[in-house]
Write a structure and sequence with these properties.
transport; single chain; six-stranded mixed sheet; 12 strands; 7 helices; ATP-binding; 2 domains; ABC_transporter_ATP-bind; binds adenosine-5'-triphosphate; alpha/beta
């Protein structure tokens, strides 16, 4: 069954007065970012979005999350048209976005607090999700006392504690070192396999995109469109050694093939824009 339906979604941004970019050789103050995205995501599916910088991945995530309105086109979660943020959608950003004045437990509890979950229940759920993410014993630590990886674990625990039907993740591991990133990818998969939330995950890293996903969606250079969808038919549960397998390498090549020209196009786009922009 379908969880998210995106139909002909377009987004154009209006720049400030005096600003411009070059589109099709001409300076303009209107930036087309998404040019008619169609995508359907199944219930419980893990979809990763890859594409060159500026291809509108984050904007698309914001549209799904109701944080940004599309210029035209529609997005539904289940059968409800997305017009504003919804409590059944969780969000995890690249920056940990924790409250520095709340400890780990209180940070997770916050998401439950705003949804009106009674005090004892929210404390119990917050503890449960911190434990799931290996943070038992760190409940009373403040964000400044936690490593980047631990902070991101708290942020993911917070998003999952509300039992979201959809979890949107915007490069959540990009700021982490390689080992922590590997570890968190595996932890996320382990937990996702238990709860089966629908996940849409934006990343620049091809290996990460393949390792996590049921399907990798490759976006074109701006204005973004779905260029190709690669079904990842690798067994689950997955472990990191899978990345050394010939099957994984085949997907790596397939995704890179789809992406390569778009990355080049995006680079040309920036070079041109930079020579015109104010
Ligand atoms: N509020 C805004 N006003 C004008 N342009 C914007 C605005 N928000 C985003 N953009 C432009 O939209 C384009 C797509 O941005 P977006 O952040 O979605 O790209 P992305 O694919 O996520 O890129 P990256 O991989 O670098 O994060 C960029 O060119 C960006 O400059």
């Amino acid at each position: 069954m379908d969880r998210i339906t995106i139909s002909d979604v377009r987004k154009t941004f209006q720049l400030h007065s005096g600003q411009s970019i070059v589109v099709e050789g001409k300076p303009t103050d209107r930036v087309p970012v998404l040019a008619g995205v169609d995508l359907t995501i199944r219930r419980g599916e893990f979809v990763t979005l890859v594409g060159p910088s500026g291809s509108g991945k984050s904007v698309l995530l914001d549209i799904i999350g109701g944080l940004t309105q599309a210029t035209s086109g529609r997005t539904w979660i289940d059968r409800t048209l997305v017009t504003q943020p919804d409590a059944k959608v969780g969000y995890v950003f690249q920056q940990y976005a924790l409250f520095p004045w709340r400890n780990a437990l209180e940070n997770v509890e916050y998401a439950l607090e705003v949804r009106g979950v009674p005090r004892l229940e929210r404390r119990e759920r917050a503890r449960h999700f911190l434990t799931l993410f290996g943070l038992k014993g760190f409940e009373d630590r403040y964000p400044s006392q936690l490593s980047g990886g631990m902070q991101q674990r708290v942020a993911i625990a917070r998003a999952l504690s509300t039992d979201p039907e959809v979890l949107l993740m915007d490069e959540p591991f990009a700021a982490l070192d390689a080992q922590t990133r590997d570890l968190l990818q595996s932890e996320l998969l382990r937990i996702w396999e238990q709860i089966n939330t629908t996940v849409v995950f934006v990343t620049h890293a091809i290996d990460e995109a393949i390792y996590l996903a049921d399907r990798v969606v490759v976006m074109t250079a701006r204005p973004g469109l779905v260029k190709e969808i690669v079904e990842i038919d690798l067994p689950r549960p997955r472990d990191l050694d899978l990345r050394n397998s010939p099957e994984f390498n085949h997907y790596r090549q397939q995704v890179w093939e789809a992406l390569r020209d778009e990355v080049t196009r995006a680079q040309q786009d920036w070079a041109l824009s930079a020579s015109y922009a104010n």
